[in-house]
Amino acid sequence: MQTFIPYEIIEGDYDIGMVILADHAMNRLPTAYASLGLPQSAFERHIAYDIGIEALTRKLALLLDIPAVLSCFSRLLIDPNRGEDDPTLIMKISDGAIIPGNHPISQSEWDHRVDTYHRPYHRAVERTIAKTGARGHAPLILSLHSFTPFWKQFARPWHAAVLWDSDNRAVTPLLDLLRAPGDIVVGDNEPYDGALKNDTMYRHCMMTGVPHALLELRQDMLGDEAGIDAWAERLAPIFKTLNADPTLHEYRIFPSRTGSYPA
């Protein structure tokens, strides 16, 4: 039986000093979990993965010749962008969909998913960041996500958004570069707040002083190959410009808005 690998590392030129992360790239499940009791249609929704992000990450990694790390399992199994102590790490219900395979769940099954899927993904992220920073300069980390165009009948006006905690080193220039053409609406910590204790950016960047930003893109703009290509062509030169700034390759720890870091 083929082993389920919970992450994929796209190789690139580590000396360039930039890494893309895609926490919710895929909607797959290991065979043993079948469909978690959900209809197949659930796995085409945002509750299962970030629509369009896998293809966009692959295109950007190729265009920029940089490494990327993708999660290979659905967030319905366990959410890699949550801390191990987060009660929403394994969701019982998501946007109205009850997940039978997650409720009830035993402590041993909870621990198994953490050990088998969540931790290996984060170890892959750690290795990739360490390899990219091996020459002594901090790497620039860019995390890609996507969001739904509507939420509870509210039409979200943003085409893109940048989420962050308190380290604005990459955030301010990224917002400026995205807004410069004047053809898209770009949110600042919309539609979510980027300060989330023990999430991916907190764990791998805030706590370690690595420059970073989390970019959210609206899913209706990533719904086909043309949309994905358009975003890749827009973002590649922006990411190159960011990466060329030497101040975005310095280690500096900022206090988190979520509170003090663990000792």
Automatic annotation (TrEMBL):
A Pfam short name: FGase
Domain of life of the source: Bacteria
Species of provenance: Rhizobium deserti
Record-level Gene Ontology MF annotations: hydrolase activity
Protein name according to UniProt: N-formylglutamate amidohydrolase
Keywords: Hydrolase
